[in-house]
């Protein structure tokens, strides 16, 4: 186990480690554990606190970071080295759980998608409008997708999309196994159970194709626009990415799912596509104030430092 001493000198915090090559490793993987995108360098906001990395035969290498980020680094280093507990005098080691909002957002993202696959098996008609039972859930997935893309980047969002894809496949296989298993004599819902969940694999194909293509288009568009405009123009890139992503998602989903839920005419298909696209896009536009608030809150919680601020030169002291 590494022994870590903390020394304070003025406003500088220095970590020294005995019998270890690195006192506090600030790397892309290290940052990723706290939700910072591995696509960019560590935050370099010029502040008094610094983390000094010292390797054998080398001098200390300062890496500027925000004060709260430094505290997390120190806490994480200490916790990683001493994540033990005792049980009857015996030491037990565990992997420390680090604080970040990313897994919570991924959980909401994936669960919303899984529920949508089941709800989408029901066709819904509201007056002249034709849609499916998941029409009110898909906007939530795209709002969370916007938050993931804006705060964590394309690679982290793509990872969440792939997790949702894998969990949806697991759910479909589980449903089919449950349908295939012989029903108990007292169970009277076998036909209804099979009729409802038996459609899921067909809806799943439509959902997966639309979901993967739509979410990746949404994330790719948002990240590319952010690369050009920086922190400015958040509303514009949220709306533009939504239009691109929702159109791809809705068109592909409807093309595959329409026959499954009983839409067999071109007019019905066109109605389904247009209503679905307009509804989902309108919901996201209406929810933009909430989306921007969530994005701002996540960035504050994750100690996000904009590139414009991180790279800004420090003002010279006045004489």
TrEMBL record:
Q: Which organism is it from?
A: Corynebacterium aurimucosum (strain ATCC 700975 / DSM 44827 / CIP 107346 / CN-1)
| Compartments in which it is found | Cell membrane
User: Which InterPro entries does the entry link to?
Assistant: YhhQ
Q: Which family does it belong to?
A: Belongs to the vitamin uptake transporter (VUT/ECF) (TC 2.A.88) family. Q precursor transporter subfamily.
Q: How does it sit in the membrane?
A: Multi-pass membrane protein
A single cellular component GO annotation: plasma membrane
Coiled coil region boundaries: none
Keyword annotations for this protein, in alphabetical order, are:
Cell membrane, Membrane, Transmembrane, Transmembrane helix, Transport
Transmembrane regions listed in the UniProt entry: 101-120, 126-148, 160-181, 193-213, 234-263, 269-295
What is the name listed in the Swiss-Prot or TrEMBL entry for this protein?
Probable queuosine precursor transporter
Transmembrane helix listed as a keyword: yes
Give the protein's biological function. Answer: Involved in the import of queuosine (Q) precursors, required for Q precursor salvage.
Select a single GO molecular function from the record's annotations and give it.
transmembrane transporter activity
């Amino acid at each position: 186990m590494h022994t870590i001493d903390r020394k304070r000198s003025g406003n500088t915090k220095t970590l020294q480690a005995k019998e270890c090559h690195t006192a506090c490793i600030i790397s892309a993987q290290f940052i990723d554990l706290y939700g910072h995108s591995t696509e960019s360098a560590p935050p370099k906001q010029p502040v008094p606190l610094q983390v000094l990395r010292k390797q054998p035969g080398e001098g200390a290498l300062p890496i500027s970071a925000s004060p709260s980020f430094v505290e997390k680094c120190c806490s994480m280093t200490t916790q990683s080295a001493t994540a033990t507990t005792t049980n009857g005098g015996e030491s037990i080691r565990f992997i420390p759980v680090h604080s970040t909002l990313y897994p919570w957002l991924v959980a909401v993202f994936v669960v919303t998608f899984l529920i949508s696959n089941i709800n989408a098996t029901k066709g819904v008609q509201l007056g002249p409008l034709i849609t499916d039972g998941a029409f009110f859930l898909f906007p939530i997935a795209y709002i969370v997708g916007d938050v993931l893309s804006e705060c964590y980047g394309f690679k982290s969002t793509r990872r969440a999309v792939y997790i949702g894809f894998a969990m949806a496949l697991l759910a479909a296989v589980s449903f089919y196994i449950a349908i295939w298993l012989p029903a108990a004599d007292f169970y009277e819902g076998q036909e209804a159970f099979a009729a409802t969940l038996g459609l899921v694999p067909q809806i799943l194909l439509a959902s997966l194709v639309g979901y993967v293509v739509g979410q990746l288009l949404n994330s790719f568009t948002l990240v590319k626009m952010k690369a050009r405009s920086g922190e400015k123009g958040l509303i514009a890139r949220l709306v533009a990415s939504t239009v691109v992503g929702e159109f791809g998602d809705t068109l592909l989903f409807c093309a595959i799912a329409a026959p499954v839920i009983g839409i067999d005419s071109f007019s019905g298909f066109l109605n389904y596509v247009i209503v679905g696209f307009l509804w989902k896009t309108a919901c996201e536009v209406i929810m933009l104030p909430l989306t921007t608030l969530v994005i701002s809150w996540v960035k504050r919680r994750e100690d996000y430092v904009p590139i414009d601020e991180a790279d800004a030169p420090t003002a010279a002291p006045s004489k």
